[in-house]
Amino acid sequence: MQGEYDWMLVALSYGVSVLGAVTALQLAIDIPLARGPGRRLAAVLASALAMGGGGIWAMHFIAMLACRMPMPVAYDIGLTLLSALIAVAACALGLAWAGLGEFRQRRVVPAGLFMGLGVAGMHYTGMAAMLMPATIHYDPWLVAASVVIAVVASMAALWTAFTLRGGWRMVGAAVIMGVAVCGMHYTGMAAAGYTPRGTVPAAGSLGTLGGDRLGVTTFLVTAFLLSATLMVSHVRFLRRQAASL
């Protein structure tokens, strides 16, 4: 049993991934500039929320909803929220590790490895949140490939966050990161097969998420929050530049 994709939601999943990456890279500028542990923690969390919550988790959830299955599918709220928490926590720890003190490129590999494993854990936790009359089984080779893509993408994201400056370079990097994040997700989806069984709670029942408009709604809310954050961060960056002249 295989699903078919709603290509509008596929495109929206990529778009929100790029927007999340641009916002996270803009916010990451504050990490090495922060003075004091409190401000550094705030900068790390802000960038992690944009990258993990917007660029990675929202992309993942919209892309999950883009896959139209020939059966009813709902999502367990607890596991869905846990997958979002894993994504944000993995990005926060990766950014904090890579950006500890003065940036050192040698930290990118272990930090990216940890972050990539966290992103992969987010994806498969999100898959486990699917409530449907079927069991999921995985192709281990494609699962391994998805994890490798997640780790490489995480290393690239961390290196970019602490080395690239300039609007167009960050946008270009975000476009590439969006491809990598989507590549990890859709490779993980390709690894999954489904065997029919039993019944599950209907979408919208207590403790579940579902509905035809959920994907577009998730995109609109996430895109609004990321865009507002990006504009505020960019204005602050321009003010800092003007003050330093």
From TrEMBL:
Residues 5-195 form the MHYT domain. InterPro entries: MHYT_dom. The keyword Transmembrane helix applies. It comes from the Bacteria. This is Integral membrane sensor protein. The chain crosses the membrane at residues 6-29, 41-65, 77-100, 112-136, 142-164, 171-194, 214-232. It comes from Alloalcanivorax profundimaris. It holds the Pfam family MHYT. PANTHER family: DOMAIN SIGNALLING PROTEIN, PUTATIVE (AFU_ORTHOLOGUE AFUA_5G11310)-RELATED. The keyword Membrane applies. Keywords: Membrane, Transmembrane, Transmembrane helix.
